[in-house]
């Protein structure tokens, strides 16, 4: 039946996406490393699977939302992976933050196998995922994009098409995460400068967040940075570091010197080296700036 | 009479401020290095003055909006400067982007002379000045802030009070200009990365400007950066470099290491070294990133 | 017979090493991508081979001196590669500048095949290679180091043992190349600073090279940098960039933030992006600093 | 009498210089903030003075060796300063590490007063000062250089002439101190990289110090950095930071972007911000790199 799809990855974002797909009437064949996570979903619409291959069996679409390139490749190509059971002509919608190289590589392998791959990374934290407010970037084959559209429309407030290249959407996602990190760093520097000059960090953050920079990224991250409010952990520093590495690597492969990417990469590398990998990336950046300044 | 004030500095921003003060019923004693600039103002409400001292003579308020610390000090303390004629108890509202040290220094000198000084730097480009949409930051003596309030309300959409310190408002202004520059640099890097990976700079800029970063700074500067549209010149690189120096100096005096300030300072220093000082700071940053990447 | 060894890689350094081995009485089975390069060697002591496998056939030692990790892996593991014919118990002495990961990987593969691998990277340019003045770093299995010793003694003025780890010597080599690059960058910056302050670059370079920094690296590179003498090309920028990437990658994998490595990586990445990949790395650095300064 | 000269500044270097001048037969009119320091000198050849003016009274040469620009200006121009008593035609030999601007400024003021100023900064730590092994850089008026020569020859192993400009020698000194700091930073990064890859820091330092970088700067600082031996304090971080500021300022005024200067400036600024200002600059750099790497 048409409305059955595979769904792999019940992380912070994935779980809300799965719920929204169920609300839209889809039945999900779910795989997750910790499968008990699927108990949060309505069992009437869920088939729990022991392997990625089982999740991909008999569906025309399988969605993956995973932590990094290596996990995506293992889930797709490894033993009991998606490719072992994905039907011919079926589509793999890959929503993880991965390098464009990985998308190019998987696109080729899917083509060889008679199936399809579509890069569809997204912007938004858990609350946005829950509220169907994600922004989803896609690029690749037109037919794949057409097939994916109705499914993606259930997940976000917009699907933006960045052309025919297999990895273009991944480039946009990596660029965007860099811009978010750079926004956090600039606020941490500015508010620490204000603090060391006798001003109230929170007032300065509030001013910028309600005037020149009145968007949620500056408002929400800005409040956390100003108040040195580093918990609960929303997005781990080690994942932020992974994103910084992706941006750095892309700057290498495309020969684009990017001084701010360098600075952010150093910031997050140092955070991980200091043992803050499990802390929120707001802490990696905010505390990093503060400690360098001796406060 | 109450409604007569001194006004010094008819630059890109100053000219609109003067017009708005006139619209609000003020009569201005105007001084400008190029005094013919005052011909753009309604002569019924303007007295042209040959020196800063004359502009300050007999008023209870004199406003300065000048290019840098040195000019402000010269206009205030130099031969035929404000201090020679400013009446006792009168208030000097200083709206230029200058260092907090300069504000502290001038506050002391005004106090010694029996007059007052108020730092009141602003955010906004020429269009915002024209539309009374500036954001004005103030800090210092409460009485000075109270006296300035009705005048400043004629110029912007908000006056924000950053406390009692003489230079606090200048710190906020410097921090804000750094954040604007950092926003430009991050966009230039991100959009060049996109370009070198085969994407359309303008589409990427449009996406970010209408989603995660939907504020004018990212929209307007973003469009110019994406399109490599560097003219007409709105804000000169040499002034941007001055602002980067102010931020750098503040990071030194307050012992706040700021990696992004370093990066921006280098970017603008290099622009000036290459002879682009008269070009718009969008060009300094955008073209700088492009040239480093060989495009 | 004992004195026959395989030799792969007749580049700028390799050709002199081969000549010195011949002078020491070795007979070489030579492979090089451009095999005609072997015509420079005494034919009485050379067997030209059409493949790496042939060069490794029947010898107890094969030496490789190649441009990067990928070439080394292809020559060793590829079709007609060393592993196809290298005898059991034979030793592969790997003198290229490669990552420690590559050495660890090849060590394992050699062990599985019953042969041995030794990392033995070197310091010194062509003249040092010719004069048997190279410094050779080794690390790995003790037996392998003992076997290699008499051969390596024919090539340099010292063999330094950095312990048992497969890749330790590569780490030292990568660290050393970073230090050389950083020395060049610091001179380029210092001498350009001198120039822009009205001093004679060459005199300043001569002063430092004969006092505080009186070692060949500072003297020879210093003279070239001071005189902007970028030809003939000794070591290509694209190879320098490769070394910067190795250093950067090592800083990532070992979680060691290294600001100067960042700066050098950016410098060489930008040089390659600007199309200077075939120019000497002295030019990449020297001209890079000059252009940023507008001279 | 010819052999009487003024001498101001009995710091770590100054005290040895004073001793060597006495050994060469000079009688010194000494001023030091802590005058008891002069008790270390042979009283037969010393006149203790209560003010800089007294030290300069009646001599044809006065030497200053002080901590920074501000102290030099105060000692020279302040109340009871040198200028109050220095005879006409006398020469002020300024051996402190100061900006070229200060030398230009003092040269003009001396000229107006009918006396002379010569920038003569030096390279070498206390042991070198004691052993008359300093390198002394001079620039300025030829007659001043001729007059100073016999005195300077008593203090070092070489006097190098960098031309006619008042501040040229200061530029060389600032460039050299930057090169020393950059050498320390590159070693700290390289040896920490080695450590985190399982190698012995000290062995790596010993290797580079006896081969490619066999000069005292790399050997002595290298040993201290490798062994994390940060005491006794030879040169304070806050003075190192002052030197980094001088280099940075010079890069600004001469429009020379210098990425390594940026990195060093940040390193030392952060050390001072963290409260390490009184620690040796080896600690500022060595410990800074280690802490960023979490070791």
UniProtKB/TrEMBL annotation, chains A, B, C, D:
Residues 167-284 form the 3-hydroxyisobutyrate dehydrogenase-like NAD-binding domain. Pfam families: NAD_binding_11, NAD_binding_2. Keywords: NAD, Oxidoreductase. Residues 4-160 form the 6-phosphogluconate dehydrogenase NADP-binding domain. This is 3-hydroxyisobutyrate dehydrogenase-like beta-hydroxyacid dehydrogenase. It comes from Mucilaginibacter lappiensis. The lineage of its organism: Bacteria, Pseudomonadati, Bacteroidota, Sphingobacteriia, Sphingobacteriales.
